[in-house]
Amino acid sequence: MPLPPPTTTVRASLNAIARHSALNAFVSVAPESHLLAKAAAAEARIAAGSPLSDLDGRLIAIKDNICTPSPLRTTCASKILGNYTSPISATVVDRLEAAGMITLGKTNMDEFGMGSHSVFSSHGAVKNPHDSDLSTGGSSGGSAAAVAAGICDLALGTDTGGSIRLPSAYCSITGFKPSYGLLSRWGVVAYANSLDTVGILSRNWRDARSLFSLLSAAPDTLDPTSIPRPNPKIRSSSTLRIGIPVDYNLHELDDRVRSAWIRTLESLSNAGHEIIPISLPNTKHALAAYYVLAPAEASSNLARYDGLRYGLRSEQDRVNGTLFAGTRGEGFGEEVKKRILLGAFSLSAGKMDNYFIQAQKIRKMVQDDFTAVFGRDEGDASQVDVLIAPTSPSPPPKIAEVADAHGTDGYVADVLTTPASLAGIPSISLPVEKGVGMQVMAQWGGEEVLWKVAEGLEEAGGIYQLETSE
Questions:
Q1: This model's pTM is above 0.85
Q2: Going by CATH, does the domain composed of 6-215 fall within 3.40.50.1820?
Q3: Is residue 172 classed as helix, strand or coil in its secondary structure?
């Protein structure tokens, strides 16, 4: 079915933002005149048969920690950045706009990406489009809500430990975290540099594939971690060897999620794919290691927010002549403060060996687990092509429950997503029923096999289809 003209899409999306304002999905929206001018230009190019790309004229929402130029702000959903407007735009934003895509606005999120339910935002919590009492997931909750509500077909998010995949599962859409290094992080506000990954949220996996191809076409010289897209060896077979990590079959796994996992595997088995139980024994340590490493990096990255150069400057610091104690106390939310303290503690002289260094060793063990099951070359008899497991141990919980979680209770939603993040491997969450996603993981650089699984699952009727009105 042909897409409607871009100007029609812009008007419909602006109406949808107003209609779904209670979702609190957007932090800022581009002016209507700006959007319509961009849409008219795209419409003219398409009519003339000279579109800039296959995505020319398509609307996209951008997570609020990815820098965009005026008129859009970049606040990271934090009071400390307030009305900050970035003087630069991220490489991924430049590339999508060079391809003719239209940036609709910036989406709400957990402050600086620190959260699993999009409740830790200075702009207020994001609501799930399917049930406003339920968590939308985090930290890319605004992007997920915008896509799930039909405001736009595509959105950019960031995934540090599951921040794209978890909200995608909760909102019944596709969430794709590519291999670390394949999408530029230049212009992305850092949370944890060695883990942060730009990714894509979409209403279908084909749109995610198209946008990934566009954004990963060439490495970015501005990003020292940017790597050319590889061509890994994948077995030349019409059927796949699908690994089932038995360590992901947690006792705490919700019955509905476990049943959906079984149905997914059955549909792929019926299509001729081989199902192979495998072990990733260090999975049980991944969550703890992640919550040492990510806060440690965050405590260093967030040291720059002192109100002296940009952002909030506390009146207390102005009046009393203090340097930045008041500014950071007022500017950061409670969850961010907690993670800064956790990170500073694990990096302190007396604790670094027992926490940060040990967590790095665990990370290497997790990476080795994945290397062992994917094999090192095409002829490795132990090789599996992909792994399939639930994205989250449960369907979306109630917002009231997660907002009142104590200590580290709010972190358990990430238990199944952090291993792939620690290993830097690609993972895509596909909706298999409302509120339940299955993540497909491949070796580093193995994105192509993820699309193959998505297509096979779609053909088998195993992907949940959102209605346009949802």
A1: yes
A2: no
A3: coil
- The β-bridge partners of 387 are 243, 441
7: how many CB neighbours lie within 10 A of its CB?
A: 17
Which candidate in 86, 116, 121, 163 is catalytic? 163
CA dist 368 and 4 (Å) reads 48
The three-point CA angle 137-31-106 to 5° equals: 20
Alpha-carbon Rg for the chain in angstroms: 21
Residue 89 known to be catalytic: no
21 catalytic residue (yes or no): no
Active site residue 86: no
pLDDT 10s digits, 33-68: 999 999 999 999 999 999 999 999 999 999 999 999
**Three-class secondary structure of residue 279 per DSSP:** coil
Q: Take residue 214 and report the two structure tokens written for it.
A: 């566009």
Q: Do the Cβ atoms of 293 and 192 come closer than 8 Å?
A: yes
Residue 280, token pair as written in the block: 């990733």
Catalytic residue among 139, 179, 392, 429: 139
pLDDT tens, residue by residue, 413-424? 999 999 999 999
Q: How far apart are CA 169 and CA 202, in angstroms?
A: 12
Task: Out of 38, 63, 127, 452, pick the active-site residue.
Answer: 63
Residue whose tokens read 């003209």: 5
